[in-house]
Amino acid sequence: MKRIIFLLLFTSCFAYAATAQLSTVDTSKYPKLVTFSAQQDHDNMMQQLGIKKLRPGPSGDAAAPNHANYDESMANPCPQLPDILTAKNGKKITTPEMWWSQRRPELVEDIEKELYGRVPKNIPKVSWAVKVTDREFIGRTPAIVKQLVGHVDNNGYPLINVDINMTEVLPTNVKGPVPVLMMFGFPSFPAPAQPSPAEMEKLNAVFKEMMIKYDPSLKAIFDRYPVYSPITRLAGPNFFALPAIENLSPTEQLLAAGWGYVTIDPNSIQADNGAGLTRGIIGLVNKGQPRKPDDWGSLRAWAWGAARGLDYLETDTLVDAKKVGIEGVSRYGKAALVTLAFEQRFAVGLIGSSGKGGATLERRVFGEAVESLTGTGEYHWMAGNYLKYGTEESSFGKKAGCDLIVDSHELIALCAPRLTFISYGIPEKGDAKWLDQTGSYMATVAAGTVFKLLGVKDIGVSNDYMTEKMPPMLTDMLDGELAWRQHDGGHTDGPNFKFFIPWATKFLKYTKAQ
After folding, report:
1. DSSP notation for 25-64
2. Domain ranges of the chain
3. Confidence of residue 159 (pLDDT cuts 50, 70, 90)
4. Distance of alpha carbon 33 from its chain centroid, rounded?
5. DSSP category for residue 191
6. Are the C-beta atoms of residues 379 and 42 closer than 8 Å to each other?
7. How far is the C-alpha of 421 from the C-alpha of 439, rounded, in Å?
8. pLDDT (average), residues 146-163
9. Closest to 185 in 3D by CA, of 274, 258, 250
10. Band of the pLDDT at 195, cuts 50, 70, 90?
């Protein structure tokens, strides 16, 4: 509850500030801000692309007539993946130099154009400010916590205000700069510091006095309950009842291992809906106008915001900016993978249950389909051009996932040779078959060729994605810079933190210094 109240107050303050700023702006000097519903924006993009009809996505209801396919024999209508190590001119890529100078730029161009969109060149600068600094005790670990706001310069279009919301938590019981895991989520102070008992007594005395002045009838109530204190301390950590290290929350595990963490709010960068595409950072750069087909979508915008968060971490002397990772689950798992692929300053990624649009092969027809992402609910994650691959009728004919010239194995390959941990749970616990864990495993297997080319290890199997079988859950494939592990929990990466942290710590060559 206290976190919800904090977020509401935080959001309200900035909404008020944005409204006050807007009231002083002469709006006639700027293009009129377009207000679309998600359906209107989706229709506009279809019109730009010449699409008359899209195929509906499959239903997650097994009893529905258009239920999703879960028959593995029908899951690979076009099993041959684009060859990562063959350039567009047909030449084989055989050296790291050829990868960096020729093949990787080709893949970046195609993945941007067809999947996630291009980041504009004219994005305004971000100025970071520390709003609050608090010293807290989180479980066993003393920490310094900062509430940060990254204000995007909107002088070019003051009708839209973008303030990136981020919280940084660093342990204070270790020496030297520490590695940090940036996580997509909803920032809050994990364990706000509280006044001492003497200070609480003073606060209660003043508060009672103020309440009685406001409503004199309250004096009788306080006289009847003289020991009652309206303001009470929150429950603090009980050092005699703390869980064992292996049972700590993921963030407490990070702190105990000498890591810091950052939580960055994706919605403060770009809304998670189609109606918001003329707002947020995408709308600010477009001056409130609808996207063009190869403009960036929300996943790429969130990745851009994470990179701006990394800009701040590079200025913090308590952080080892060469050892910063990115993490997310589900849609934020997609965003974490996109971030790691395109922003090479991130050293490590924990990619949780990312599904289609993330680590799962686009051309696979198992559970979630391309058509699931081209409808009005999730299209905003992707570039407008992505809609073409759910097209039934259009000026260019009919297209499906098999027509894509790139796929997710190549997105994973863009992360090489940096540390990339692909994580899933099991359907029985809620990490639904819809996510197509097998399709992600196949992509991970295929991506391994690039990790090997660049002189590091992959998950330790052949790179024949059609014959390699996904191993049983709880199988550790953690011997290389590319890692795979399916835990026995649900739609979360939490159970894999106890494996991810030592894996990343080892490969980053980090030693916790007391």
Report:
1. S-GGGSPPPP---HHHHHHHHHHHHTEEEEPPPPBS-TTS
2. 72-191+252-507
3. very high
4. 27
5. S
6. yes
7. 15
8. 98
9. 250
10. confident
Token output for 476: 């550790």
Record the pTM: 0.90
3-state SS string over 463-476? CCCCCCCCCCCCCC
What are 226's two structure tokens?
A: 């003289």
φ, ψ (nearest 5 deg) of residue 485: -155, 130
Tell me, what DSSP letter sits at residue 248?
A: S
What are 2-41's pLDDT values in tens digits? 444 444 444 455 444 444 455 578 888 999 999 999 999 9
CA distance 133 to 170: 11
The CATH code that applies to domain 72-191+252-507 is 3.40.50.1820
Tokens of 199: 């200070």
Residue with tokens 């692929």: 341
Q: Is 329 exposed, middle or buried (0-12, 13-18, 19+ CB in 10 A)?
A: buried
The residue whose two tokens read 């790179």 is 463
Cis (ω within 30 of 0) for the bond into 58?
Answer: no
Cα–Cα nearest to 388, from 377, 378, 373 = 373
Compute the radius of gyration of the chain from its Cα atoms: 25
Question: Which residue type, as a one-letter code, is found at position 306?
Answer: A
The pLDDT of 284-312, averaged and rounded, is 98
Structure letter (DSSP) for residue 161: -
Please tell me the distance from the alpha carbon of residue 264 to that of residue 183, in angstroms, as a whole number. Answer: 6
Q: At which residue do the structure tokens 């835990």 appear?
A: 487
